[in-house]
Design goal:
single chain, 472 residues, mainly alpha, Ribonucleotide Reductase, subunit A, three-stranded antiparallel sheet, 7 strands, Benzoyl-CoA oxygenase subunit B, Ferritin-like_SF, Aromatic_CoA_ox/epox, oxidoreductase activity
């Protein structure tokens, strides 16, 4: 077990002081990161925020709570404890000792995987930077900032790997992670979902439920990697990612709860005039964020992902619970397709090239759990309406379904009919304007906006009316 050094300028548990060259390189990157945080991070001025800071990766606890100024947050480098006898669990190297250094033949592929993952971390901070000005409560404001600082720490984790294991090219890629910006025309983020706007809190909760859940599954596949430092980094990141999804899950819980209350009290589906978000608008936002997040898993078939698996770079979700041979050389899988007759169907392909489909299906099953929660809230309110996930072909721009248009029920449409009817299923300018009209800040202790229900409990045992954020 590696003891953590939390007194250093860069808190870490990777013996950074033993590699002075690496330490100097990261300390020279640090001012650029802080400049990025100042100009691209949260815009709402604060004195301090009640934040969780990583202090330990062991079972005894890895988080410390306290009020800290966000610029002084202890961004650090934390890897799960090393398992000395860890073996590669899949692919052609299955059973061999996990790699502590980057094999030369896989250098470019590993670097690319780390860069793509690293690029998503600052992107979400940039997307959410203006949300603090319209927070519905100090509790929610605190949760936003917790997500932001942890995304910043996840960036640090990826930058550490680039600096420590990929030489000059790695250092250059680390610099590029701060030069790209979400939504920039000249230098956008790598993945499309991370160039979308997050202009309101309904979007934020949908993002942290659906898009951060994609992050969970991507981190889960990288946690299986034969490259042990990457595996250990992602294992620790998953601990923090769980909070981001908690924010999304419970945020939507509370929006649905408040909407249901007003629907019952006023005996109407149209709760917009009563200062809430109509259920049909919630469904439209859900449709958008879910479909965009499905695209993040890539095409239904991929030779690149097959090669990653075979090489041991990227495994499957919960690889250890799979009952096959973990090599998949003779296995097959049914993947989604559009048939020659133009119908949505399935086709059989080699399991190795269908790994994106395998991961996406794990994700879809997980997303259904949130739907069950939200629909239970509606049922308990005595309402017949239910939220639902749209068909996998709906509003897709990557993979098999990119060339067709579909209703949320999976009925194929012509391009003309899609253009005419898409406002039935995706947020319109009118929907967005209404949602944004509700986004008025509530920065008073114990108070909350009228469009969302209060949480059932605070953070770390603190009550809802705790002073989670001190504004400047």
């Amino acid at each position: 077990m590696t003891a953590g050094d939390y007194s250093e300028r860069i808190p870490n548990n990777v013996d950074l002081r033993e590699d002075r060259r690496l330490q100097r390189a990261l300390e020279s990157w640090q001012p650029n990161f802080l400049d990025w945080w100042q100009f691209m991070g949260p815009t709402l001025p604060t004195r301090d925020v009640y934040l969780r800071t990583a202090i330990n990766v062991g079972r005894e606890g890895w988080a410390h709570f306290g009020h800290v100024a966000m610029r002084d947050y202890r961004w650090g480098i934390f890897l799960a404890d090393r398992k000395p006898d860890r073996r590669i669990g899949f692919g052609q190297h299955k059973g061999e000792p996990a790699w502590q250094k980057v094999p030369g033949e896989y250098r470019a592929e590993l670097q690319r995987l780390i860069v793509i993952q690293g690029d998503t971390e600052p992107a979400s901070v940039e997307q959410q930077r203006n949300l603090g000005a319209t927070a519905p409560s100090l509790y929610d404001l605190r949760n936003l900032f917790q997500v932001n600082v942890e995304e910043g720490r996840h960036l640090w984790a990826m930058v550490y790997l680039l600096h420590a294991y990929f030489g000059r090219q790695g250092r250059e890629e680390a610099d590029e992670l701060l030069r790209r910006n979400s939504g920039s025309e000249e230098s956008p983020r790598i993945l499309g979902a991370f160039n979308e706007e997050t202009p309101d809190w309904l979007s934020f909760f949908m993002f942290t439920y659906f898009t951060d859940r994609d992050g969970k599954y991507q981190l889960g596949t990288l946690k299986e990697s034969a490259f042990d430092p990457l595996s250990r980094t992602c294992e620790f990141m998953l601990k923090e990612e769980a909070h981001h999804m908690f924010v999304g899950t419970t945020g939507i819980d509370r929006i649905v709860e408040r909407t249901a209350q007003l629907m019952v009290e006023n005996d109407t589906d149209d709760v917009g005039p009563y200062g809430a978000i109509p259920l049909r608008t919630i469904q439209k936002y859900l449709n958008f964020h879910y479909s965009v997040s499905l695209d993040l898993f890539g095409s239904e078939t991929s030779t690149n992902v097959a090669n990653y698996f075979t090489a041991g770079l990227k495994g499957r979700w919960s690889e250890e619970r799979r009952s096959d041979d973990h090599r998949l050389t003779n296995d097959s899988i049914m993947v989604d397709t559009v048939t020659d007759e133009g119908q949505i169907g399935y086709t059989e392909v080699a399991a190795l090239v269908g790994l994106n489909t395998d991961l996406r299906r794990e994700y879809i099953g997980d997303c259904q759990i949130g739907l069950q929660r939200w629909n239970r809230i509606l049922a308990e309110a005595g309402l017949p309406q239910r939220l639902q996930l749209p068909h996998i072909a709906f509003n897709r721009r990557v993979g098999t379904f990119a060339g067709i248009e579909s209703t949320p029920d999976g009925q194929l449409l012509s391009t003309e009919e899609w253009q005419r009817r898409m406002g039935e299923w995706l947020p319109t300018d009118v929907d967005k304007t209404h949602v944004r009209s509700l986004m008025r800040p509530v920065h008073e202790r114990g108070k909350i906006a009228a469009w969302i229900a209060p949480p059932r409990q605070g953070i770390n045992g603190k009550p809802f009316d705790y002073d989670f954020v001190h504004l400047a």
